[in-house]
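Mods, move this if it's the wrong board.
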Amino acid sequence: MSDTRIYSTGKRKTAVARCWLVPGGSGQILVNRKVADEYFTRPSLLQMIRQPLAMTDNLDKLDVLATVRGGGHTGQAGALRHGIAKALAELNPELHRQLKKAGFLTRDARKKERKKYGQPGARARFQYSKR
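Not the wrong board. Structure tokens:
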């Protein structure tokens, strides 16, 4: 492996994650200049972020540097997972098939539906009164 950084962008909902993988690291994950354990307080989100690294046996071989903007914590964690998976596939093309099969390379296209006029929400309706 080379000593260069691998860059990729991950997205989910309105969150965007810019990810850099540094080969030859100790497995440290920094998100917005904080350790991932400090940035994401829920253990499920930490597990989500580490999924592509754990699946490809790169958990303690690569450092991850990331900046995340927009959305909430869950969207940001999903965007970060997407970005890490894309960077792993670029770093080692042999992992592409494995990551694609697990669904980590597919961008989750679900977004919040817009509010419609004449309604209180996207699908909700005002209460109907017959009389």
